[in-house]
Amino acid sequence: MSSRFFERSDPVAFAGEDSRDPLAFRFYDKDKMVAGRRMEDHLRFAVCYWHSFTWPGSDPFGGETFDRPWMQGGDPLALARQKADVAFEMFRLLDVPFFTFHDVDVAPEGASLQASIDNLKAVTDLFEEKMATARVRLLWGTANLFSHKRYMAGAATNPDPDVFAYACGQVKAALDATHRLNGENYVCWGGREGYETLLNTDMKRELDQLGRFLAMLVEYKHKIGFGGPILIEPKPKEPTKHQYDFDAAAVFAFLQKYDLLGDVKLNLEQNHAILAGHSFEHEVRYAYANDLFGSLDVNRGDDLLGWDTDQFAMSAGEMALVFHEMLQHGGFTTGGLNFDAKIRRQSIAPDDLLIAHVASMDTCARGLVAADRMLADEALTGPLRTRYEGWESAENRAILSGERDLESIARRALDLDPQPRSGRQEMLEGIVNRYV
Questions:
Q1: Does 340 count as an annotated binding residue?
Q2: Which of 103, 268, 327, 392 could form a disulfide bond with 174, CB atoms 3.0-4.6 angstroms apart?
Q3: For 26, how many CA atoms within 13 A lie in the half-sphere containing its CB?
Q4: Is 405 annotated as a binding residue?
């Protein structure tokens, strides 16, 4: 069974802005220095295993459209090995530094939990062998606790304690595999940790279960010496009507309640932010404001569709605002930019997988450069500083430090006549456009 999938054999290279080759980088020059670091070290791109190699092109109204030989039937472990061959070939062709996976993306589920764990160990052996000679590393691993019907009512939040226990076994195995492969983070996405109706839901019980589940995961992380953070990926809905990790703010409240701050950070996704009624920039800024920033999934939705379409990020302006936030805080530490994105159902040529990643990597590179230029020119930070400069006086700093009480401030207000000042929103939006 041949693992040959892509026609090209040479890695995609930087060709410059004048290139018209869809399989050449126009803006992503990995060794270019931006804000004191190589572009590759800022962006830390990762290819995800699930959408790239396990999604067949189906949608709610139609079946598969993609030709994926490793999904056509046969010995499950042999097919997993063939899929891994194609995946690592793609990592080489794109020259990406990282990849990500769910357990069931890379290894077939067995007839029992032990059989599934054995399959995952076998694929981990294969990955370890391949990674020894490849430049790609593991950004993060995770367990799929949402696809199998056993998880239809949740995993950690399930009313059945046996399902809770099964999820513990699956997550332990996935973290073990991640640790063995020197993964830099471990992600938890609570796809069905929520409810369809409150009529059959004990919310407090389910939240307590979820809190205990994550606490045990953190305890085990420390026990085995896994050095990276546990990351929670917020999403407000879909597949459930309401998910407990609704957005960054909801997760922050949850982590405070269950004493998980410090060990748990956020993996933020562009499209999940939109579904929660926020911008990607908002979620990133909130995460930094509360010391929760971890990693990013870079995939967008469609303005005309209200669901999670998982399209590749193609707006340099949107990404510039995200990088503007990140560069002010030093950027990634263990995190990266994971392409949790699908090519469209009609993009059936094998090279479409490569082209989509190349185009989105270029988009991110343009956004990074624009953000760096805006910061160097203080294009946005200057007006922002001016807007709040009144708080820098000694008297007003004394208010925030607790040196003034309500009565003293109220007496001072009797001599004041504050006047409105322009927020200059359109001017600022125009500034952003000039840089991107």
A1: yes
A2: 103
A3: 16
A4: no
Q: 381 to each of 321, 328, 377, 389, how far by Cα in Å?
A: 12, 10, 9, 12
Residue 8 CA, distance from chain mean position: 29
The active-site residue, picked from 42, 102, 278, 357, is 102
Query: Cα separation of 211 and 258, whole Å?
Result: 6
| pLDDT band, residue 2 (cuts 50/70/90) | very low
* 158-211 tens-digit pLDDT: 999 999 999 999 999 999 999 999 999 999 998 899 999 999 999 999 999 999
Query: Is 102 an active-site residue?
Result: yes
pTM over 0.85: yes
Predicted confidence band of residue 382 (pLDDT cuts 50, 70, 90): very high
The confidence score (pLDDT) of residue 1 equals 42
**Dmax (CA) of the chain:** 84
What was the pLDDT predicted at 307?
Answer: 86
Residues of the chain above pLDDT 70, percent: 99
Going by C-alpha positions, the residue among 198, 205, 286, 297 that lies closest to residue 248 is: 286
Q: How far apart are CA 179 and CA 402, in angstroms?
A: 46
d(CA 223, CA 233): 23
233 is in an annotated binding site: yes
| The pair of three-digit structure tokens given for residue 418, joined into one six-digit string | 């504050």
**Is 308 annotated as a binding-site member?**
yes
Rounded to the nearest 10°, the torsion over CA 152, 228, 294, 52 is -60
Give per-residue burial for 313-347: e unless 16+ CB within 10 Å, then b.
beebebbbbbbbbbbeeebbbbbbbbbbbbbeeeb
- Report the pLDDT averaged over residues 386-406: 97
Any catalytic annotation for residue 160?
no
Degrees, nearest 5: CA angle 245-250-253: 120
Residues 6+ apart with CB under 8 A from 373: 379, 435
Which one from 105, 176, 362, 372 is the annotated catalytic residue? 105
Give residue for tokens 């407090």: 204
Q: Are strands 242-243 and 194-195 parallel, antiparallel or unpaired?
A: antiparallel
429 is in an annotated binding site: no
**Mean pLDDT computed over 33-62:** 96
Does the annotation list 329 as a binding residue? no
Average pLDDT, the chain: 97
Domains of the chain: 33-376 (3.20.20.150), 382-435 (no CATH)
